Amino acid sequence: MIICFSGTGNSRAVARELSRYITGETVEVEKGLLLDPASCVIEVPENEAVVWVMPVYSWGIPPVMERFIMKMKMKCAPTTGHFLVLTCGDDTGYADNQWRRLVGRRGWNPRGSFSVQMPNTYVLMKGFDVDSPEVVAAKMGAMPARVEAVASAIKRGFADSDVVRGSWAWVKTAIVYPYFRRFCMSPRPFHATDACITCGLCARSCPMENIGMADGRPRWGNRCALCLRCYHTCPTHAVAYGSATAAKGQKTDTQS
User: Fold this and answer.
1) Confidence at 253, pLDDT banded by 50, 70, 90
2) Is the pLDDT of residue 255 over 80?
3) Which residue in 9, 59, 182, 233 could disulfide with 93, CB within 3.0 to 4.6 Å?
4) What phi-psi label fits residue 242: left (phi over 0), alpha (psi between -120 and 50 degrees) or beta?
């Protein structure tokens, strides 16, 4: 079984590739499951592993997935192995250790963790932008082989960490990540520029159902996952985050 949260399509693409090798259904965590995780009950068939697929958020676990893991209900054997596949632009820090603690607190059995490098999509801070077309092509070209290797390790019951931690990994996860969660995840700066054509795609695609339309214009609420799906799916590049996204690029192969 694969349980996947994806904002801009990277984790979804990896989950779909994994599903070629991993037995069981794929559960996509969005909308109702994210808004009311306590109502979610997942039954894991005997002899199936649970593979969690999600992006890295500032070298940590997405807060919405932390909440989902802690509140959802799962029926599985005590011996069921749980595995983690993180998608990242470059590195993961110690995000996988956060996941291990969460899964352990639920009484589940955390096993191996992996990372798959995918195109960068975070654009809300100075120095962060999408990758060049050449880098995107290289990452997407390497993804299938990496996912096949990950699937093979999962089938073997791999119980270690196979992630790209990057430099200053402890500092990134222990210091930068909490700062990011507290001060850099507000949806308030989101707005639509004059390029908006009132198509409503941002509202329809939002995994948190956080965007409403008022007088034909999108309005952001307070339950944002900061996944940037709205930004990257906008056909006219009209979604902006204060002035931070001025002159920033969009992910051209977004899969919503």
Assistant:
1) low
2) no
3) 59
4) left
- pLDDT cut 70: percent of the chain above it: 98
The alpha-carbon radius of gyration of the chain (Å, integer) is: 18
Residue that has been written with the tokens 């989950």 in this structure: 15
- pLDDT per residue as tens digits for the range 87-111: 999 999 999 999 999 999 999 999 9
Neighbours of 139 (CB within 10 A): 18
Residue 24, judged by CB atoms within 10 A of its CB (0-12, 13-18, 19+), counts as: middle
How many angstroms separate the CA atoms of 223 and 120, rounded?
23
Give Dmax over CA atoms of the chain in angstroms.
55
Q: What is the rounded average pLDDT of the residues 223-241?
A: 97
Beta-carbon contacts of residue 95 (< 8 Å; ≥ 6 apart) = 56, 57, 59, 60, 61, 86, 163, 173, 177
